[in-house]
Write a structure and sequence with these properties.
Radius of gyration: 16 Å
Shape: flat
Distance between the termini: 39 Å
Strand content: under 5%
Largest sheet: none
Structural class: mainly alpha
């Protein structure tokens, strides 16, 4: 995770293609480590299962331009419909 944030902090000095490639590689590394040789604790196994099922979605906002890291817009839209 630290490596991912280092890349994010250097994003202004990188070409877009290099940035996306670097973030994609570090994302895959995080997912692989989060799913392999996982401790047998319930929490670790649950996280590994979530990564197996939805791992790409956890990091999509980092590697896909225009995808927001939160669902605030969706929540705001729902609230305005129900008010």
């Amino acid at each position: 995770m630290r490596e991912m944030f280092e890349i994010i902090h250097k994003r202004e000095t990188m070409e877009e293609e290099e940035l996306i490639l670097s973030l994609t590689e570090v994302r895959q590394d995080i997912l692989t480590k989060g799913m392999c040789n996982v401790p047998s604790t319930k929490e670790a196994q649950n996280l590994a299962k979530r990564f197996r099922l939805n791992g790409d979605a956890y990091f999509r906002f980092i590697t896909t331009p225009g995808v927001e890291p939160t669902n605030n817009l969706a929540e705001q839209a729902i609230r305005s419909c129900c008010d």
